[in-house]
Specification:
single chain, 186 residues, alpha/beta, seven-stranded mixed sheet, 8 helices, 7 strands, 35% helix, globular
Length: 186
């Protein structure tokens, strides 16, 4: 079995548009993303689990495998993660398909997708899909390597959302900023 880094790097070379990084997220970043969920969250969705480092952190927070649904487009990552985490539900499709595949009962969506490297319209579609499967009090957890929110102020406004900075994770290459997106309280 390839080491985690070698496995990720191979997929990054073979599927660069789907991976958008040459190194997997660090354990510190995974923990920072997962600290916003737990058994009380109810159903959790993860967009873009990759090798499963954030998946592992989510489960370590007490989310039961049967309460975790994963959306991964890369079939090699999907197969590997599904084997590593039995009991979770894996969908080998784009995150924007979530509303077609599950009810709106989700407490949180945790996303490892490289949103800032995607076209603006696709970003909005993915984040919009997340909020279509979430309860009204649900949260969207996203990290970025950039200095801006995962959506522009116009994009947030169009979807009726707000974004707040959570934790800056320096123990990641490159350093990452975690954001929490919520429905606006109008």
């Amino acid at each position: 079995m390839l080491s985690e880094l070698a496995f990720f790097l191979k997929q990054a070379v073979l599927q660069p548009k789907q991976t958008s990084s040459l190194v997997p997220s660090s354990r510190a970043l995974a923990a920072a993303m997962a600290e916003h969920v737990g058994p009380e969250t109810g159903p959790v969705v993860e967009f873009g689990p990759g090798t499963g480092i954030i998946t592992r952190a989510i489960l370590a927070r007490g989310v039961r495998p049967e309460n975790l649904t994963l959306f991964e487009m890369n079939p090699v990552f999907a197969e590997t993660v599904a084997k590593r985490f039995p009991g979770t539900t894996m969908h080998v499709t784009g995150a924007q398909q979530a509303p077609d595949l599950m009810p709106a009962t989700v407490g949180a969506v945790v996303s490892g997708l490289p949103l800032l490297s995607m076209p603006r319209s696709l970003r909005r579609e993915i984040v919009g899909a997340a909020f279509k499967v979430m309860r009204p009090d649900g949260i969207f957890v996203q990290f970025t390597y950039g200095h801006t929110t995962p959506l522009s102020p116009e994009g947030l406004s169009a979807l009726g959302l707000t974004a707040t900075k959570a934790k800056k994770v320096w123990a990641n290459f490159p350093p990452a900023q975690v954001y929490i997106l919520r429905r606006s309280q109008n």
